[in-house]
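wait is this the right file?? whatever heres the structure
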């Protein structure tokens, strides 16, 4: 399984910004010492890649992120990006999620298995998105501007 922080505070180590990273843990490593605060433990999904899905209003932008890393945020120099289409049922579920919670923006993370199965990990209500436009040419900024101007 893996450990993920519930909140990702940035802190300084030797004058460099750092974050709490995702880490692999074994069940026997989880004991009473974790009782002091909240934690998120999640089954590790064997993944071929990650997918960041940015939903802006009614528009959906999916980018496959290949890295070979457990946590792609740990080394941006190893990332490659490919715009992809989501499975139709996944796109419907994303918009149902957004509608249910009254959201206009969400940055969803998925693990992608080698066989093509998408595994939902989380929705980041304030997830980063703009760097994906520079890497892929997807019109995320224009979609955000349209949303803010209340254009469909």
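ok assuming it is, sequence goes like this
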């Amino acid at each position: 399984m893996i450990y993920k922080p519930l909140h990702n505070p940035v802190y300084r180590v030797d004058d460099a910004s750092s974050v709490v990273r995702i880490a692999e843990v074994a069940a026997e490593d989880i004991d009473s010492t974790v009782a002091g605060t909240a934690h998120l433990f999640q089954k590790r999904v064997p993944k071929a890649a990650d997918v960041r899905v940015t939903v802006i209003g009614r528009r959906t932008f999916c980018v496959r992120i290949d890295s070979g890393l457990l946590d792609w945020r740990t080394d941006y120099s190893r990332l490659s990006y490919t715009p992809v289409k989501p499975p139709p049922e996944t796109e419907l579920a994303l918009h149902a999620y957004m509608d249910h919670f009254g959201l206009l923006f969400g940055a969803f993370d998925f693990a992608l298995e080698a066989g093509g199965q998408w595994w939902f990990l989380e929705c980041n209500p304030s997830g980063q998105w703009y760097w994906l436009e520079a890497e892929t040419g997807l019109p995320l900024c224009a979609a955000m501007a349209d949303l803010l101007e209340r254009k469909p």
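The mean pLDDT is 85. so i think its the right one actually
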